Fold this sequence. Notes:
It contains five helices and three strands, in the order H-H-E-H-E-H-E-H. It has a three-stranded parallel beta sheet with strand order 1-2-3, with helices on both faces. Helix 4 (98-105) links the parallel strand 2 and strand 3 (110-111). By secondary structure, it is α/β, with parallel strands linked by helices.
Amino acid sequence: WQPVLDFGDPLDPACRARLAALRSGGSTRLGAALRHGAWQLARRRDGEQILLVISDADPHDVDVHDPRYLVDDARHAVRRARRQGLTVACLMVDPAGGAAARRIFGARGTAVPLRLDELPRRLRALLG
């Protein structure tokens, strides 16, 4: 877990440097990350509650050998967050991972912008 920006923090040069320095590594326990994000949002009750995941949506853990378990765990976390009133969606960074993302977030909760100029339209459709 690598906090980069917290609620109320400015998107200043230091934050931009932390974003640029992010690297993937280790396991991707997407379900755990979703539950943690939902918990963080549930503690705040000001404004619309949106949990936007930017990911390849390919859960992986070196300790779990059944990939279906990780997808189902993440899907369960999304359902639970939505029952709590959160909007949960995934902006895909890899079009090849679409099947897992649609299973976790649903077809309407997943967007794959193929070009940068598509991003605003895709986000509006995803979160609107």
